[in-house]
């Protein structure tokens, strides 16, 4: 009697269904993208360094320790922090890869920590062990890098951190930081908001993820500047949308319903601002009824300016590739490089959105 | 103690777990009517119902699973899978995209159900696999990118109206009605409750327990994929890494607050809907009064604790 | 001098008098067997001795002093240890850690001295026939070895009394002999042992004295040597009827006129399940009640469940009306007309959280429905029919079954079985734990159903019920058929003799 003959059948079913799922993309056919947004391969705007203050600290190969190498034949490692689910991260990784290809760096390893800090640390340590000669890191956290620094300095591997800063000593623990000034972005957003509202009105802020220094700086910069340039603008609501489109939409819906007086929304990233646009449409508002200003410079948001829903977008440029490798080249050639390289972010508004939408990411 | 007090106390005790959620909703509405501007407006009701719809739909499925003494952690990942598949197949038309995303639900439900019913894994472990892997797969399918949705048919599902009521709310109401009917009036519903009440006894009664369990997990996953595609339709974009994040917790909360015991054998559909609404109202109240998200979370924690405490009272009755 | 003594102890639970004026004495160095069928009160008595329960009345004396244990820890500290069937240790910790749990040897720094602990553990366990790496996880050891570790631990903590609750039920024969060696050593050291088991051979091999409980009362206590096996069995099973039973007979009417020439409605051949059932075969004809006799653990419940598709088997065939059931499953069994009433009503029978109505209709829902939607009217009809026929007392069909009395719960369960129109009824202790009135009703119902042509298999630990209810009795021991009582030999005496016979090859006279 074959009482137990079927014990493997469930497993087979599970495996079978898993295969079906995995093959799901096989004969996919996506929605056709409307022509308006198919701007074609745009002239990607690379980063520009803000004119550095005279006498700003620099770093040289001698100071840091290490040897001259040719970047082309060097082994380079790039560690990305977050899942590439938002356009910023996609553009950042792509920029590093593209620039490496352009410079003929054949030996680039990239890793993605998927928002797990432990994974990022082990990613980077593995890179050091495998003998990389230059590290470009987009750090997930600002602290907790001591073990990496110890390992890297033993092998004299220079580290360039991009987009977020690490709390440590430049030119010693790491070479340099390249990134935006988030408070400055907030201030510029405030200027744009003041302009859009004519220096008067009620503004709600869609905050980023709580406890994140990007959120903190973009908030404080915005509020300080509003208080300075347009004291008649009141920030009446600050609610988190966690940098997500859905939550931005939900919060905006709630706020707009119970506070018809709100005529400005400051989104600390484009995703939340786009959520707010959907909320406005749902509430029967017309483009321009409520002024929206946001930060990032993604294509969707810049198109929003073209369509009239968004007033201005302050860019946070993710294309670190050229600047990072340029800095590295200079450094390995023995020239001094800045310890804190702040990039100049551009801004999109009604005057340039249409023409520049191609350089959004 | 007076005879009256003696008579009423046990009555309150048995009444509270069943109807406490409605009382809490009533109190919260009264507070908002008094202190929140423009609360008693159709536009407000509309927003709350639309926002809560995906949670209600997921919670309906969760209630069925919990009714069998199980739990399904994979619902959020199923939503993500459905969301990831929609833009891929939208080229064939809305219907095709919907069918494909529902099929993903069926497949995941089969996996969960087979693992629970035939392999004999504990539900929390069985559904953990998809909970972890499903979203990863969804991110891979969608290339990790957020995709804008422009299909008018799908967008109409998310933000259109029918007779002045959002389509989303109609769909949710119909699904709640169907689930309630299935539970009350069908062979499957009766068997489901018996399995949850005493699986061994139900098995000995000749009920095909494995089939019932697999069907329950498939139903739950299909409901989750419906919630996923409706979320996509509503936010007019598909972001596999964000859709349905942490919804399993919201759904379980709605079910528990609604008076369904985690020990199975009993399911309260209307209570589940009310539980989800209560949590939605708490969030809305906090946002409208500009209180921080941590305040909302603490308020929700208190509600859960009260619900669990009240349920405990019933047990010791 | 006595070591441990209870005098006139009673203990009641809602609806049950678990212990009724029971006295029990354990002397130092004595191995004292505590026997009785399910529900006799053994577990309750053990729990009184170990401080889990406090008696309603009566006295507990330890080494001559009256004591009252507030919690099991108190009893343990006083030197009374218990070893349960399931080992009560931490499977994920090492053998040595388990042995010394809570009393680890320390070094000068106050830290656990692992070396010493492991050395001592090795020495101690060697005495118990366990030679294993003491650093292994306890859970990785065979069950017998785990039990030895538990025993070693119990003795180590200066136990004066060791209570063993069916210690051999999961041991291999070789391990049993090791255990007996240890028991003899404890005996020599003056430790008193309470030994609970239903294996006759073991009792006679290792025990000095015996106390027999039945229905919560003390039936007999004294030296084991000189007590015939058959006397022991008859006292356990209640041949000596209690006063209540002496006046009334069971409600069974007598033999049924089953047609001996009719083909069997149920034919079981060679039913085998690892360790539990060995080649069990028997037939049941329409209108016949076949009893399954034997002590606890003889394989009666397993046989019934295996036929019902709820117990895994390795071999054997089950034929209903001549048709092979094939791969057994509960779904197939019910579909073929087999209805099982399991022994444990609460765990496997009723669904306590559902109504009387839903419980009765559970097995027949497809018949009560169209396109998957149930017809309330049809359910009402069938529920009404069986509630009336079985005289189920409930406030309404909507009352939760969990709120009914035991007897009514049992009737609801029987109603569910009957609603499936079964051909064969398998009843496992159908009258256990229900009141006298309900018992009589259930007994006459069994007669009535057999009269209607059903084949019935009856399991009962009540010898009287078994012989009066059954037309034939199949006697089981250790999972095998050891006897077959027919005709005039269906008597309690023959049943006792069949059960008590020393372990020997089948002596089936039939």
UniProtKB/TrEMBL annotation, chain A:
One of its GO terms (molecular function) is carbohydrate binding. SUPFAM superfamilies: Periplasmic binding protein-like I (SSF53822). The keyword Signal applies. Keywords: Signal. Residues 1-28 form the signal peptide. It is found in: Cell envelope. It holds the Pfam family Peripla_BP_4. It comes from the Bacteria. Its main location: other. GO terms for cellular component: cell envelope. Residues 84-330 form the Periplasmic binding protein domain. Gene3D superfamilies: 3.40.50.2300. The keyword Signal applies. Belongs to the bacterial solute-binding protein 2 family. This is Ribose transport system substrate-binding protein. It comes from Actinoplanes philippinensis. The lineage of its organism: Bacteria, Bacillati, Actinomycetota, Actinomycetes, Micromonosporales.
Automatic annotation (TrEMBL), chain B:
GO terms for molecular function: transmembrane transporter activity. It comes from the Bacteria. CDD domains: TM_PBP1_transp_AraH_like (cd06579). Keywords: Cell membrane, Membrane, Transmembrane, Transmembrane helix. It is a multi-pass membrane protein. The keyword Transmembrane helix applies. InterPro entries: ABC_transp_permease. The keyword Transmembrane helix applies. The chain crosses the membrane at residues 21-40, 46-66, 96-117, 124-142, 162-183, 204-230, 242-262, 269-287, 293-311. One of its GO terms (cellular component) is plasma membrane. It is found in: Cell membrane. Pfam families: BPD_transp_2. This is Ribose transport system permease protein. It comes from Actinoplanes philippinensis. The lineage of its organism: Bacteria, Bacillati, Actinomycetota, Actinomycetes, Micromonosporales.
UniProtKB/TrEMBL annotation, chain C:
GO terms for cellular component: plasma membrane. Pfam families: ABC_tran. Residues 4-240, 256-503 form the ABC transporter domain. Gene3D superfamilies: P-loop containing nucleotide triphosphate hydrolases (3.40.50.300). Its main location: membrane. It is a peripheral membrane protein. GO terms for molecular function: ATP binding; ATP hydrolysis activity. This is Ribose transport system ATP-binding protein. It comes from the Bacteria. SMART domains: AAA (SM00382). Keywords: ATP-binding, Cell membrane, Membrane, Nucleotide-binding, Repeat, Translocase, Transport. InterPro entries: AAA+_ATPase, ABC_carbohydrate_import_ATPase, ABC_transporter-like_ATP-bd, ABC_transporter-like_CS, P-loop_NTPase. It comes from Actinoplanes philippinensis. PANTHER family: CARBOHYDRATE TRANSPORT ATP-BINDING PROTEIN MG119-RELATED (PTHR43790), GALACTOFURANOSE TRANSPORTER ATP-BINDING PROTEIN YTFR (PTHR43790:SF9). It is found in: Cell membrane.
